[in-house]
Design goal:
Strand content: under 5%
Radius of gyration: 20 Å
Mean pLDDT: 90
Oligomer: single chain
Structural class: mainly alpha
Length: 242
């Protein structure tokens, strides 16, 4: 094991701090996928399924060795990591294969004409924006007039939805996987290849409100406050689709 590059913390301190930080993101994201205020069909797509598979895979190891931190048993942690890692490599549904398929499907999605018309690229934030604003969901049906809803109910559902989607935005797949495999690398002595599409300059489109919302979600730290803007985006998209 080599922890020499992990600042000035002890191996146990660094492992525990990193595990805590990663677990927080993963647990919040997984909980969000299971407690959406309405059905999100995209979670059953290849991208959604593989995203959740990655989170559950990382969570399984982090939770397994959590109890060892308080005992300062670094050798026990090493044994558990290596046992888990060996099983992961032979699993048909391992984290790396899930990531590769996720990235493949994300690239295919970004090539669709409809996606290109909104100036979106093959990154996680743009994909979340698309499923929130362009794909049909419960709230878009309200905006189109297909469903009637009281304003206070719509606001309550929307703010809850936005807060949960932000948890998924924070748990960005590439960053999570990079952090996770860096976390176990002192034990495995291996590095992994994780293809990633760099963020490109935002493309302005004819959808003025959509453009503003896209910029806002990439810098706002509390999406639940974006209720009015999100409603305006859904109204804008609904007008286009009529």
């Amino acid at each position: 094991m080599n922890f020499s590059s992990k600042e000035k913390k002890s191996p146990e301190e660094w492992l525990e701090d990193e595990a805590s930080r990663q677990l927080s993101k993963i647990i919040h994201a997984l909980n969000a996928t299971h407690t959406m205020p309405f059905q999100c069909i995209w979670l059953q797509s290849d991208i959604g399924i593989k995203y959740q598979d990655m989170l559950r895979g990382m969570e399984s190891l982090l939770l397994t060795i959590w109890s060892q931190f308080k005992r300062n048993n670094i050798s026990k942690i090493e044994n558990q990591v290596m046992t888990w890692y060996g099983r992961q490599k032979r699993s048909q549904n391992n984290i790396l294969s899930s990531y590769y398929l996720y990235q493949e499907r994300l690239n295919e999605w970004a090539s669709l004409p409809e996606v290109k018309s909104y100036g979106l690229s093959s990154n996680w934030s743009d994909y979340l924006l698309f499923v929130m604003a362009v794909e049909k969901n419960y709230l878009s049906k309200v905006s189109s007039g297909a469903i009637s809803m009281l304003e206070r109910e719509r606001k309550a559902i929307t703010t809850l939805f936005l807060s949960k989607m932000q948890m998924l935005y924070i748990a960005e797949p590439h960053e999570l996987c990079m952090d996770f495999f860096s976390w176990i690398s002192p034990f495995t002595q291996e590095s992994v290849f994780l293809p990633y599409n760099e963020d490109i300059e935002l493309t302005q489109t004819k959808f003025v409100t959509f453009n503003k919302f896209r910029m806002e979600i990439n810098k706002n730290n509390k999406w639940s406050l974006l209720y009015d803007m999100y409603m305006d985006v859904l109204d804008e998209i609904a007008r286009v689709k009529r």
